[in-house]
Amino acid sequence: MEDFKQGLLEGKKRAAARLISMGENGQQEALDVIKELYHKTGNAYVIGVTGPPGAGKSTLTDKLVKVCRAAGHKVGVIAVDPTSPFTGGAILGDRIRMSDLNTDPGVFIRSMGARGNLGGISEATGVAVDVLDIYGCEYIFVETVGVGQSEVDIVKSCDTTLMVMVPGLGDDIQAIKAGVMEIGDVFVINKADRDGAEKTAREIRMMLEFNKNEWNPPVNMAIAVENQGIKELLDSIFEHREYMTGSGKGHVRRVENRKSELLTIVKERMTRKLFEKTYNGEVIDDLSQKVAKKETDPYSAAEMILEKINMN
Amino acid sequence: MEDFKQGLLEGKKRAAARLISMGENGQQEALDVIKELYHKTGNAYVIGVTGPPGAGKSTLTDKLVKVCRAAGHKVGVIAVDPTSPFTGGAILGDRIRMSDLNTDPGVFIRSMGARGNLGGISEATGVAVDVLDIYGCEYIFVETVGVGQSEVDIVKSCDTTLMVMVPGLGDDIQAIKAGVMEIGDVFVINKADRDGAEKTAREIRMMLEFNKNEWNPPVNMAIAVENQGIKELLDSIFEHREYMTGSGKGHVRRVENRKSELLTIVKERMTRKLFEKTYNGEVIDDLSQKVAKKETDPYSAAEMILEKINMN
């Protein structure tokens, strides 16, 4: 454990990588290292990047990272796919596009997938953010694949959330869950050379009107593949950062973020315990069969399960 | 308790209404009644109605109910709004539109809202479905307001799920979460007289192509306010029912539904316990503050909470 601690403090990539993997596998040792070094976190600025599949989040992140690198900053990228057991690595292509950053010693790239349905992805992502923060990254981009609840939970612990959209395409249905919009601090219409970009921007501005707040999220335009609008987008992100710091809202947000993070960790662990204590869900399967046969009812079955896990 | 049991078995509306309210308030007595009568469930056919806000789900449900009524069936309607603490009753208008059914003794209408963030809405909905099933409803429509995770959990316990869509409107962004599409057994484009109805139908068919299955969800057209396409839609629902029964998949689905229902109840109760055992979340608030001040770290804080609720 001392080795990892030392390695991380000295900014050794290998130590960071190993700790993140250990966190993913739920190894207590990784958590012990972070616990001891937690007071060293808080220097990284964490930017969440989310939006519907196909919006070009990876390319956009890639370009944003390059601007940060040009300014000499140490950067971390965490790409999270909570749905990976289902998509079966279909998003791997997205990751590869970032590969020319892979050889840059000032960039740490990591992708995280869900390992089954026991939860834990949010906690593992939190561990990775903390590790990269201590490791010395000044900016950490947390990119998610979709816009579901897990993604919302994940970006909820970021300092600024960037919502990436695309102009409405013929065959593409905008995959935006009502309510997800509210988590965007900064919006960008990527692929802005496509038809309908202005219309999409107008629609988003209109939706934001309903949610009026002191901070009015800017709606940027970008063409990531052509490196257009990237610096302006980063400026928007920095404006949000300044607003949050200047207004004192940054502190309030950080407390809220920590609470959301904490609740997510607790719920994930509760779900894991639920499966462990029911023989990997076997008890739940058996009881479902019994309910279906009406040998018992769902409420008695739930009580039995809760009793088994001492939550009654 | 005997009174309620008796009343429900005799098909007394008041008994059903009271039991549903008691279930909403988490009163054990309601669950005790259902437990005793659970063997009498399974006669109702449960149809989930979901889709983005503004798709006209309530009007469509209203018309479908009227067709069922014309055939002499006893019908239940449960309108669920998991987000009601936030929308503040904005959907009440939807409910009122169904009011001319309210005077029909053969229809039982009930709306359910979330009572805070402690969860429990899925369980309360399950209770309502069971009560109306025992009460003698042959068809139960479970209508949800949005298309979020809670809605998915709710319609997951239905026999047939109807997904209501609308043609793409200028200012309207289709609020469909990627992944939500899969839960639709039957699709309908409502307000089909609007521009782009055929285009929307094509888009949906294309999305369904990716998810090919033995059952190919039909995509219907309807104009609910003009009562157009309603009988055909109900026929599609019945076709799905026949397919499920004929192929034996109905049984498999029911077991899966019961499992999903059971897991949801267990998780909702775990979350409730979590809040109860942490003094309504006070412990969590305090610990979040401490983490933000770095007096502790999220992992130690999570462990403290889990220890407090005996889930460590």
TrEMBL record, chains A, B:
A GO molecular-function annotation: GTPase activity
Annotated keywords: Chaperone, GTP-binding, Hydrolase, Nucleotide-binding, Plasmid
Pfam family, one: MeaB
UniProt key word Protein transport: no
Highest taxon of the lineage: Bacteria
Annotated family: Belongs to the SIMIBI class G3E GTPase family. ArgK/MeaB subfamily.
Entry-linked NCBIfam families: lao
Name by which UniProt lists this protein: LAO/AO transport system ATPase
Organism: Ilyobacter polytropus (strain ATCC 51220 / DSM 2926 / LMG 16218 / CuHBu1)
